[in-house]
Amino acid sequence: MSRRFEGRVAVVTGGAKGIGLAISRGFAAEGASVVLSGRDGEALERAASEIQASGGVALAVIADAAADGGAERLCEATLAKFGKADILVNNAGVTRDGLLLRMSDEDWDLVLATNLKGAFRTIRAFAKPMVKARYGRIVNVSSVIGLIGNAGQVNYAASKAGLIGLTKSVAKELASRHITANAVAPGFIETAMTEALGEKTREGLQSQIPLGRLGAPDDVAHAVLFLCSEEAGYVTGQVLPVDGGMVM
User: Fold this and answer.
1) Residue 38, beta-bridge partner list
2) Active-site residue 234, yes or no?
3) Secondary element (H or E) of residue 161
4) Which of 82, 150, 155, 206 could bridge across to 9 with cysteines, CB 3.0–4.6 Å?
5) Tell me: the pLDDT tens digits for 124-176?
6) Distance between CA 148 and CA 150 in Å, rounded?
7) Separation CA 167–CA 111 (nearest Å)
8) pTM above threshold 0.85
9) Tens digit of pLDDT for each residue in 39-75?
10) Where do the DSSP E strands lie in the chain?
11) How far is Cα 245 from Cα 201, in angstroms, rounded to an integer?
């Protein structure tokens, strides 16, 4: 097994479940010390314990980057434990789906705050030690919905499209400090959310995907790990769809 991230410290928001957990496991398996953050303390502790039981190094930090001071507390906890932060993956996200004409301000604000403002705040916090170290890898988990839109998801689509603009602007601002910023745009991925779909709905989704299947969390994790690796040192400001060819 390669150890591409030996000696690196990777921070993963929403790192205890689904795609975030797959990313956290991937970093740990390849030698990184992993900081998992989120709002669900029990899930964070389970994920950290699992990584530690497999021989990895993990720290669970309860933090909501959308809340005032949350991103700063996460950064402080990371630096206090490991002294640095080499990699930041903004994966935390929520949905509050509904048609435009019926969507409340509260559902709009919650999704934009969690998915977009939270990412902005964590990048702002972690960019400071990265700039000082003149090294960093930032990956934002967007979505194909941010590229193509989706009925009933105006808030989610706006937040994920916003992440792409944020990524490109951060890439331009921080490139001179040897910090890259990229985004992945997952398609339909097998998570707790898609497990609840009916068979007809799943078949309809799969019919839109040239590769003929829903993705696995590890499919996204592999793309994130590549963008955070030394092999991707000359890649910045890019959006990598991980969608089985759905939006090509």
Assistant:
1) 62
2) no
3) helix 154-174
4) 82
5) 999 999 999 999 999 999 999 999 999 999 999 999 999 999 999 999 999 99
6) 7
7) 18
8) yes
9) 999 999 999 999 999 999 999 999 999 999 999 999 9
10) 9-13, 33-38, 57-62, 87-90, 136-141, 179-186, 239-242
11) 19
Please count the residues of the chain: 248
Furthest C-alpha separation in the chain: 52
* Complete domains list, the chain, with CATH: 9-242 (3.40.50.720)
Q: State the Cα angle at 146 between 195 and 193, rounded to 5°.
A: 10
Tell me which residue has tokens 């497990």.
195
3-state secondary structure of 207: helix
CB of 58 closer than 8 Å to CB of 9: no
The pair of structure tokens assigned to 162 is 């916003």
DSSP 75-106: HHHHHHHHS---EEEE-------B-GGG--HH
- Strand-pair partners of 139: 89, 182
Q: How far apart are CA 174 and CA 193, in angstroms?
A: 35
Q: Which long-range contacts (CB under 8 A, 24 or more apart) does 55-58 make?
A: 56/28, 56/29, 57/28, 57/32, 57/33, 58/24, 58/28, 58/33, 58/34
| CA–CA distance, 166 with 121 (Å, rounded to integer) | 11
Catalytic residue among 156, 164, 214, 217: 156
